[in-house]
Amino acid sequence: MHRRAAKVNFVEIRSYWHVFRSFDRMWSFFILCLQAMIIVAWNGDGNPTSIFESDVFKKVLSVFITALILKLGQVVLDVVLNWKVRQCMPFYAKLRYLLKVVSAAAWVREKKHNDQRQKGSGEVAWDGSSGGVKVSSF
């Protein structure tokens, strides 16, 4: 029977951000559901079926913008938490992190750019300063 060698020079670092990152999909789901529930509760009569009304439905679609921003935050947090081990990472792992950041930032930028083009057309537009959805009048 062989005895396993203990880990040498290894210290596991756990902070709140590491725990958050371990359950980031769950936290994102909770945040997005909370946002949708608040929108439905504050618009209309509070009835869950009011989500099918067109004005409430357009406001609920803002959860996709929140999801893009949360994804960008998750990617940045992932890079920050793995910053200390960058010297021992293979090149493809570094490239993967770089592509994740670029991809998430490009989605957020594209969404903001697309919404700025739609502001005058009467379609749903996102106002980044207020963090909500505005519907332009025709």
From TrEMBL:
Spans annotated as Disordered: 118-138
GO MF term list = 1,3-beta-D-glucan synthase activity
What keywords tag this UniProt record? Answer: Glycosyltransferase, Membrane, Transferase, Transmembrane, Transmembrane helix
Glycosyltransferase keyword on record: yes
Residues crossing the lipid bilayer are 26-43, 63-81
> Coiled coil located at which positions?
none
Q: Supply the EC number(s).
A: 2.4.1.34
Name used for this protein in its record: 1,3-beta-glucan synthase
Q: Which organism is it from?
A: Helianthus annuus
